[in-house]
Amino acid sequence: MDLLKQSYAHGSSPLPPNAAATQYHVYLFGGNISKSLSPLLHSILFRASSASWTFHLTETTDSSVFRNQLDDTTCIGTTITMPNKVSFGRLLDDLTDEARMIGAVNTSFIRLDNYGQRRHIGTNTDCIGIRDSILYRMPDAAITAKGRPSMVIGGGGAARSAIFALWRWFGSTKIYIANRLKSEVDALTIFFQSTAPDITFKYLATVEQAATCETPYIVIGTIPNDIPREAGEITCRQICDTILHRKDKGIVLDMCYLPSPVTYLYTNGNGNGWTVIPGTEVLVRVCIAQQILWLEKDVSNQGVDDAMLAIWKAVNQGQSGPKASKI
């Protein structure tokens, strides 16, 4: 689980001895990112590492803009968000196992080849943010969860990261999916047949199925905290309620944190005795993983605490709107 050590499989460090004082830049590429919380968090984490690096937003879906920025020698890494996580990943020189198996890239970092040439490596730190958030709260979760079913709510890109994390680090080979559309679950099943064929997916289509299945130990929400209106959304909510009201308890992590990290899933899990983890913690730990890859060192405990406090204040004081969920 040594993130930095694993990154050197892709090449050596590009950083000079005075890297912290060098004017390097990191860029976020995506659509509708003007209210992203990434600049707030990364500025805090850079400061905690005494690095005079800067973080910039580039609101674009133009791959040529992305490629040109990579060629700038002062660019030390990037963050990639929707709708670029697949298309921009193809422009990088290599991908980590996480990025390949999830099918999406949210981070790039630089390593040097044997000739000293810069290589841009794509990875996915969303799954690492999920892993580290759970292990911080429940250090024994990787042991406790092994062999037990898990559950993912949703069927989109974030669900892929959640599924990978559950399979790779928590030993979940039986994963329940609660989602408004069966077609999205079918697409997930087909995708992971080629990357993690030992996973067995079970689509929970009815409340009756949720009432009789084995209780999942880890439940991860990957959908917005919206009031359910369509039939599929209402059923999905009822299935979640049924699972969380069961006698056995485990861990609930909700990746949604806007307009508040205290979501319906968070509140319901907490009220029923589950260990709950808000999406703000996941976002901070995603950013920490990115910082480790760029700065090539751990983030200080004070930096982590400052980032956690800052994001909690930001989302609870209404300093950012719904689009700030872009990371």
Description:
It holds the Pfam family Shikimate_dh_N. Residues 28-107 form the Shikimate dehydrogenase substrate binding N-terminal domain. GO terms for molecular function: shikimate 3-dehydrogenase (NADP+) activity. The model is unreliable at 319-327 (pLDDT under 50). Helix 8 (182-195) links the parallel strand 8 (174-178) and strand 9. The chain is α/β, with parallel strands linked by helices and 327 residues long. The protein has helices at residues 3-7, 38-48, 63-70, 97-102, 126-137, 141-144, 157-170, 182-195, 207-212, 231-244, 264-271, 279-295, 301-316, and strands at 25-30, 54-59, 75-80, 94-95, 107-112, 118-123, 150-153, 174-178, 200-203, 218-221, 251-254, 275-277. Helices cover 41% and strands 17% of the residues. The radius of gyration is 19 Å and the shape is globular.
Main attributes?
327 residues, alpha/beta, 6-stranded mixed beta sheet, 13 helices, 41% helix, disordered C terminus, Shikimate_DH_fam
Helix share, percent:
40-55%
Low-confidence stretches: 319-327
Q: Strand order, main sheet: write it out.
A: 2-1-3-5-6-4
Strands, total number: 12
Instruction: Using the alpha-carbon principal axes, give the shape.
Output: globular
Strand content: 15-25%
Output the number of helix runs: 13
Largest sheet: 6 strands, mixed
Helices and strands, in N-to-C order?
HEHEHEEHEEHHEHEHEHEHEHEHH
Kindly report the average pLDDT value.
Answer: 94
Distance between the termini: 23 Å
Rounded to an integer, what's the Rg over CA atoms? 19 Å
Which structural category fits the helices and strands? Answer: alpha/beta
Domain Shikimate dehydrogenase substrate binding N-terminal: 28-107
InterPro entries: Aminoacid_DH-like_N_sf, NAD(P)-bd_dom_sf, Shikimate_DH-bd_N, Shikimate_DH_fam
Protein name: Quinate/shikimate 5-dehydrogenase/glutamyl-tRNA reductase
GO molecular function: shikimate 3-dehydrogenase (NADP+) activity
